[in-house]
Structures are given as structure tokens and as C-alpha cells.
Amino acid sequence: MKITRTEIPDVLIIEPQVFRDERGFFLESYNHQKYSEHGIDAIFVQDNHSRSQRGTVRGLHAQINHPQGKLLRVIEGEIFDVAVDVRRGSPTFGQWVGAWLTADNFRQIYVPKGFVHGFCVTSEIAQVQYKCTDIYDPSSEISVLWNDPEIGIDWPLDEIEHPILSKKDLAGKPLQQLMDVLPWFEER
Q1: Which is the catalytic residue, given 35, 110, 117, 130?
Q2: Is 136 designated active site?
Q3: Are residues 12 and 3 in contact, defined by beta-carbon separation less than 8 angstroms?
Q4: 61 tagged catalytic
């Protein structure tokens, strides 16, 4: 497998080895030993699966009391996946990275604790599966405004007049309004 560090080095793109033949394909979507050898030594305790239609934006979410690292992959369709560093004191605080994940490119993204995460769906339908390092805790969840101008995410929504958002995401707050609850950056 190939691991690529993004402009924010803690966010990783994983390209698993895919074995193709006349029957189709086979890949290991996760192997703790191999991922650990490449610096992803997280223990995953929860798996999630979402299905969304074109133009949906999910995020930007994180949890304060039960922060989650996430390992995502797309099993149908295409998404533009985004991670924003919200660790106070981090040299990359407030910066974002994005990656195209598709069912055809098999890429995965690892988003560690201390980041808000979200994605937008650019295909007609997208199904996303992801592993989390902690349980879902709605009482400690924060939502950063998906289009916060200070973050400046370049969402690929040119042809979509009105993104589809949940009530929670419509009520997201600008990052600066959440400063008091954000975690401190910890050197590894």
C-alpha cells in the first residue's frame, strides 16, 4: 500500500494494493498490523456507513470529549473529503486539506483526532464507510460552518446552486466562535 502525507502531515492518503482479474478485484480495506507499520496505530471501535445524494455536504464535525480519528473510504460514487486542523497552537491551525475519494480509485483518508471533518458528494449517489477511534457522543459534538470564509474551503460545488445540508450543519458556527472548546495541539 502507498501512504501519502498531505500538506497537513498528520492527515494521510492511503492507496491500498488492489488485485484485479477477470472476476473483479480484491483488496484489504484495513489491516491493523500494516497500517500500524505506516504510522496509523489507532484502535478503531466503531464503523459507520452513510449514503448521500449529489450536492450533499456533511460536516464539518468533531467531538471534544470523545475525539475521533477516522479512516474513510468510498464504496459507491465520488466525494471530495475535507479535514480542517482545529488544534489550538498547531502550526497548521485553521488550514484545510481535501482529497478526492471514489469507489474506482480505492483511496482512503486518515483524519486524526483534533480535526473537523466533512465531505461533499459530487456523483449522483455516494456511499461512504468509515472507522472511528471512539464512540459517537452527540453531547460533545461541534459543528464548524461548512463555508466559514476564514477557513476558505474550495468546495467543488460550481454546478450545485444550493448544497443539501442537515439542520445541524446549517447551524454550524464559524471556527473563531468555538475557540474556547477546541483541543490543544500535542507534539508526537
Answers
A1: 130
A2: no
A3: yes
A4: yes
